[in-house]
Design goal:
Number of helices: 13
Oligomer: single chain
């Protein structure tokens, strides 16, 4: 029986393989072109414009007192918001994944609420609550407590926007792990805290770090909610995104892009750490 394939007739699997290769390269080319237009070119433009006046102008822009104040306020907000949201996220995820109770679905819905609400609306809610003419405004004014147009308001707005990140990263992870190891630890005589530190925490450490990274990135770049509650007072309540907007509106483009480049560097560092964490934990 002759099993030779005619020279002018290729096997079907070779045709399919060639077709798949062609489709793959077309899709990859489209993806790279899209990313270049949307991400790489704008990011490159930020650094080109930031250094357009030279290194001395760049340093002067980021060491200006108003810029330093914005950087310090942003870092202060991160230092307060990220730990608080981390504690809440771990606590909520532990309760929702390890226990069954009434109101569980409602609590999950509340955690997801910031994803559905516009940050600007969230900022307005805090103004209605804590503003001078808000529900608690008169009491706060009488007790000399200022929340809106001050650091507490910025912290509250940033916390609201970033509440879901840690919790939502841990809930499915802890549900998938189940409760067998915790139950075994408790049956051997360990108390709740010891079980958490030596059993639960090691199992969720990479997922926890991943959620913290996302929360940190969102706090640094938050604009909408913070813009409403801060009042945009230069040198006092401006975070880095707000400071960039003010500089740009005042046609101080080099200074605006200089501060924006710092935010871009922080974003790139965050992405690098995020990729390292993803490689460390295949579950993410």
């Amino acid at each position: 029986m002759n099993t030779e394939i005619p020279i002018n007739q290729k096997p079907v699997y070779l045709k399919r393989k060639k077709k798949k290769t062609w489709v793959k390269w077309v899709l990859l080319s489209f993806a790279l072109l899209f990313l270049s237009l949307v991400l790489i070119l704008p990011l490159t433009a930020i650094f080109v414009r930031a250094f357009a006046g030279g290194w001395s102008v760049y340093l002067q822009s980021i060491t200006d007192p108003a810029a330093l104040s914005a950087i310090k306020l942003t870092l202060l907000t991160v230092a307060i918001v990220v730990p608080l949201n981390t504690i809440f996220g771990v606590t909520a995820a532990w309760a929702l994944s390890k226990f069954q109770f009434k109101g569980r679905s409602f609590l999950i819905t509340l955690i997801d609420l910031p994803f559905a609400v516009s940050p600007v609306i969230a900022g307005l809610v805090f103004v209605l609550l804590f503003g001078v003419h808000g529900l608690l405004g008169e009491w706060l004014l009488a007790n000399n407590i200022q929340i809106i147009f001050a650091v507490p308001g910025i912290v509250l707005a940033s916390m609201f926007v970033t509440v879901p990140f840690v919790a939502r990263q841990l809930i499915p992870l802890m549900q998938a792990q189940g409760t067998a190891e915790e139950e075994a630890s408790l049956s051997l005589g360990a108390n709740g805290w010891r079980t958490f530190w030596h059993v639960t925490l090691p199992n969720i450490k990479w997922g926890l770090l991943y959620g913290v990274i996302l929360c940190n990135a969102r706090v640094i770049g938050e604009f909408g909610a913070v813009s409403v509650v801060s009042g945009k007072i230069r040198g006092l309540t401006n975070t880095m995104p707000l400071h960039v907007e003010i500089l740009y509106n005042e046609y101080m483009f080099t200074a605006a892009f200089a501060v924006a480049s710092l935010m871009s560097i922080l974003a790139i560092i965050t992405l690098v750490i995020k990729n390292i964490v993803e490689k460390k934990s295949p579950q993410l």
